[in-house]
Every structure is written in structure tokens, then in C-alpha cells.
Amino acid sequence: MDEQINKRYLANKIFETQFALEDLRQIVREALPTGMTDEQSARFSEIVSGLGGLVEEIGAKDGQTQPVSIVGDLMCRTREEEFINIQPIQAGGRLTPEARKAVIAYGDGYSTCDSCRKPFRLDKIEKPSIAGFHTDLAEFVGMDQARVVPGARRGFQAVASTLVEKGDDVVVSAFAHYTEFLAVEGAGGSIREAPVNEDNILTAESVAHKIDEVKKETGKLPSLIMIDHFDYLLCNEHDIYGIGKVAQEYGIPFLYNGAYTVGIMPVDGKKLGADFIVGSGHKSMASVAPSGVLATTEEWADKIFRTTQMVGDVTGRKFGIKEVEFLGCTLMGAPLLSMMASFPYVKERTKHWDEEVKKSNYFLNEFLRIEGNEVLSEFPRKHALTKVDTTNTFDKVAKTHKRRGYFFSDELKKRGIVGEFPGATRSWKLSTYGLSWDQIHYLSDAFLEIAEKYELNIN
């Protein structure tokens, strides 16, 4: 490295500077259109005079500083600034600089509604171009229409509440996420799990067999098939194209769960044979939580995006343009604008998915040089998220270390790495997604250094 920097110092000083600017912004907000009061002007000048010193301190790149308070004991989060973060659920949700700027500018509750005109619905707003974003979003995932929703789980819920009747069966993977269960339960349906094979992969044959089993037992087909492309337990890739063909052969609607794909790798719903695509904004689209995407084909759009038909019995009021499953309008404010701001970058990064997979496999090959380390996910990897096992390496050290399993967290943190489950030295998950090659090499070397320090065998 050309120059040492104190990342904690810089993070805190940058936050101090940003907060000073926000204080200036607040004075501007409070001032009359005709100008500031003497008191406001004096306070404004006082803050401006302090900015020069803060900028000089940032330029020093090193020094002593305390954690910065937002208010009371609510402190700044400096995790992404200080460390290489391998936490699996955070990797694809890190905000772009553009998204962070959007949060600053559009943080007010109803900021997106300034230009809401007839027909008074979020996805129809032209300034900012929310309407255009919905069109681009549908095209991005290879579908006809799309809506933004407060997280992938609300996408599951919208589809299940529309398609699943009381007593209906829904086929999911044996590795399905719990929110899929809850969406079906909320609609009054029952879950039927298609088992994975000995390699922990869900095949088209397994799904077809489960459909036949349901038909034989109940006399009718499942009302929905809901399958994850990459599951959250091992993040293995399942036979999603084959499952799409099975769904079409049986004539059963197919929901593709792209929580770990939409926004980080190319996804084309029609090529997949999907009727519905669900994605997670805060998990895979560099967006503020809670945020997500639900997209569908023209065939299903009128049902999933149905508008209210109800009329008030006293007033005769009706709200025909409002969509029932989303209670009229869905995602608004900072979560939506952050997704929009990150979208150009997100579209571009999906074109480089192969490089992300290559980085994942490079790190894991170095990780496996430590004798006894294992990769529990399918290997070589097809994703940047992986479940590993260090029972025969770092867990052996933990058995005699005074800090037990926390020694490993300590050693990683000393090297500027966080995100593994604190105290975990057996099976745990990590993600290398979004790390540069320099960071990948540093991460790999850190694991080898820790192994060497505790006299573990390295190939």
C-alpha cells in the first residue's frame, strides 16, 4: 500500500463533516424565503467556519477521534468504512454513492409524492421518473410489468394472496425461505416441500414427483410453485430452468425467488419460464431496506395488480386506480429512490457476474489450503455466497483458547475483517460479493496468517 490511513478516524471525521453540512441544511430549511434571521445567519457562519478545520483533519488521514453520535446513544455505523465485511446478507445491499446521496435528498417521509397527480398512484409519478423506472425494472428482469414492494416477502405475499385459496397446496423447495411458508399460511394454503437430492440440489424431477403426489392425495394440482434459484442455506443453484418447464407442462403458475440473483446476476423471467419474479432490493439491489421487486407477465398482471372495486355504502366513494395487494401504493421515499439511484450501477454489475464467481472460487481455493477446512456448498462455486466448515481447524483452536470461538472473530477484526457470525468456528456463511481483487487477496492472506499463527497445516 502506498499510504497508511486510519479508517476509523476518517469514517468518524467524514460523518462529523456530513452532520455539520446537515446542520447548515436545517438552517436553510427553517429560514424564510426572504432570508435568514440574525440568529440563523450567525449560526450558519459559525458552522461554516468550522468546516475548514474538519476538512483539514480529514486530509491528515490519521489521528485520535471518538465514535460520532447521531443523537443520544445512537451512534454512527462505520462497519462498511472501517472493515472488509463478508456478512452474507449485506454484500449485495451495500449502497452506491448515488444511493446514499438519494437518501440524503429524499429522506423526508413523502418526498416521492411532491409531484403526484392524477391518477394518484406511486408508479404513475413522472417527477422523479418513478413511472419510467417501473418500465425499466420490468425489462431488466425480462417481464412485462413490475412493481416495487417493501421486501421480497411482500412479493411472495401478494402472489400467494391472489392465487392461493383456503386448502390449496403450494410446492416449494425443502430449502425454501421461511417467508415463503408465511405467505402461503397467510393465504390459507398448505406447504408441500420437494426434497433436494444427495448433492443438496433441487431437480425438476423432484418437483414433478411432488406435484404428482399432491394430485394423487388431493385430486387437484397445487395452485402455485415457488422456488429459489439459489437457496439461503447453502446458496446452491437449483434446476430452475427445468422446474420452469415442469410448471408449464402441468399448467401451474411458477414464482421464481430471485432474492439472491435479481440485481447481482442476469435474470430473464420469460427464458426461465417464470410467471412471477421476486427480488430483494436491500439484499441484492444496493437499496435501502425494506425494498423489493415483483414482476409478472401480461397474462397475470390484471390479477396480481388488480384494482379495488369496493364502493362505500354511505358515501359511495370508490378508489378504482388503487391496487389491492399493495394497499394503493407501495414503496416510497428513501428506499425507492435509493433503488432508482443504484439502478444504472446494478444493471452494469450484473454483466460481470462471472468475475464475482471467479473471485469467490479464488478465495475458497486459498481457504481450502488450510488442511481440514471444508466448503459445504456445491464446489466449485456458482455464487459469491458460501457455507463453510472450520470444525477441524479454527474450532480445534477454540477448544483450548481462553476466548473460545471468539478468538477467530478477534483475529479477523484485528486485520480489518468482520461479518462472520461472532464466535462461530464450525459451520458458517460468508460472501465475497462486491469485493475488489485487492480485497480478495487481502482476505485470503488473512485466513492463511491466522492459520499459520495457530500452527494449523497449510498446503
UniProtKB/TrEMBL annotation:
Q: Which UniProt keywords are given for this protein, alphabetically ordered?
A: Protein biosynthesis, Pyridoxal phosphate, Transferase
GO molecular function terms attached to this record: Sep-tRNA:Cys-tRNA synthase activity
The role this protein plays is:
Converts O-phospho-L-seryl-tRNA(Cys) (Sep-tRNA(Cys)) to L-cysteinyl-tRNA(Cys) (Cys-tRNA(Cys)).
Matching entries from SUPFAM superfamilies are given as: PLP-dependent transferases
This chain belongs to which protein, by name? O-phospho-L-seryl-tRNA:Cys-tRNA synthase
EC number, as in UniProt: 2.5.1.73
Which enzyme class, named as a word?
A: transferase
Keyword Transport assigned: no
Q: Which cofactor does it need?
A: pyridoxal 5'-phosphate
Give the multimer and partner information.
Homodimer. Interacts with SepRS.
Q: Respond yes or no to whether keyword Transferase is given for this record.
A: yes
Q: What are the N6-(pyridoxal phosphate)lysine sites (modified residues) in this protein? A: K283
The reaction(s) annotated as catalysed by this protein in its Swiss-Prot or TrEMBL entry are:
O-phospho-L-seryl-tRNA(Cys) + hydrogen sulfide + H(+) = L-cysteinyl-tRNA(Cys) + phosphate
Checking InterPro entries in the record gives: PyrdxlP-dep_Trfase, PyrdxlP-dep_Trfase_major, PyrdxlP-dep_Trfase_small, Sep_Cys-tRNA_synth_arc, SepSecS/SepCysS
Binding positions (pyridoxal 5'-phosphate): A152, R153, N257, S280, G281, H282
Query: Which family would the database say this protein is a member of?
Result: Belongs to the SepCysS family.
GO terms classed as biological process = translation
